[in-house]
Amino acid sequence: MDGKVYLTGAGPGAADLLTLRAVRVLAQADVILVDDLVDESVLGHARPDARIVHVGKRGGCRSTPQAFIERLMARYARQGRIVVRLKGGDPFVFGRGGEEIAFLRARGVDVEVVPGITSGIAAPASLGIPVTHRGLARGVTFVTGHTQDDGEPDWAALARTGTTLVVYMGLSRIASICAGLRAGGLPATTPAAVIERGTQAVQRHAIGTLADIAARVAADQLRAPSIIVVGDVVSLAHPESLLSAGNAARAA
């Protein structure tokens, strides 16, 4: 009997931001391959007898090889098992979901995508920052802080898009990111924010400008995983009231 793989987004961090469909497939799963960034409490939706396999992937840390994860998914599915590949955020936003679905389909494995809320939207929202806003941002650009060959995106070109910039996996390069954006024409006074572990009870953040956000991050010792947001929409942040309300709701 053939099994099936669900490429499933676990959302931005807070366990109660999991989608109802994700909860349903977790309850059905025989095997769950879970990323390092997924909140452990999410696994409370799994069957007691489900096999949990941690396949951590985090920048700067030892990671499970992608090829091994792909082979593991296919192997379990061919054994007739229901497999959930559980990823932080959304599988198709810097989650290598496209690579995984192509690998599985090429081998005749039944696969379905269960979208999740990406941290690039949820983390700013937790501070009251809309990534688009009439009169301030005509669009939003999601970009990774580094490329596959360990290079960097063309920050000067991105600065000229006129959109809010949301940078994933860029914390270690924040100084060069800010310098590149300023070289592309963004004023030093452009608002910027860094949000660590967005939507979780342990969330921390720094708010400043392109001129000082790197220094603020260093002073506050913010760590990955963090999202960087650059643009005038950051000026709409109301972190104190929103964070206290969110933490109170999670504690209740």
List keywords for this structure.
alpha/beta, Methyltransferase, Cobalt-precorrin-4 Transmethylase, Domain 2, 252 residues, Cobalt-precorrin-4 Transmethylase, domain 1, 30% helix, 8 helices
What is the fold's blueprint, element by element?
Elements lengths: L3 E6 L10 H9 L2 E4 L16 E4 L11 H13 L3 E6 L9 H10 L4 E4 L4 H7 L14 E5 L10 H5 L4 E5 L5 H10 L7 E6 L7 E6 L3 H8 L5 E5 L8 H13 L1
Parallel strand pairs: 1-4, 1-5, 2-3, 2-4, 6-7
Antiparallel strand pairs: 7-10, 8-9, 8-10
Structure notes:
The protein has 252 residues and is α/β, with parallel strands linked by helices. The chain has 2 domains: 4-117, Cobalt-precorrin-4 Transmethylase, domain 1 (3-Layer(aba) Sandwich), CATH 3.40.1010.10; 120-247, Methyltransferase, Cobalt-precorrin-4 Transmethylase, Domain 2 (2-Layer Sandwich), CATH 3.30.950. Helix content is 30%, strand content 20%. It has helices at residues 20-28, 66-78, 97-106, 119-125, 155-159, 174-183, 213-220, 239-251; strands at residues 4-9, 31-34, 51-54, 82-87, 111-114, 140-144, 164-168, 191-196, 204-209, 226-230. The longest helix has 13 residues, at 66-78. It starts with a strand and ends with a helix. 43% of the residues are buried.
The strand line-up of the biggest sheet is 3-2-4-1-5
How many strand units?
Answer: 10
Rg, alpha carbons: 19 Å
Assign the CATH topology of the largest domain.
Methyltransferase, Cobalt-precorrin-4 Transmethylase, Domain 2
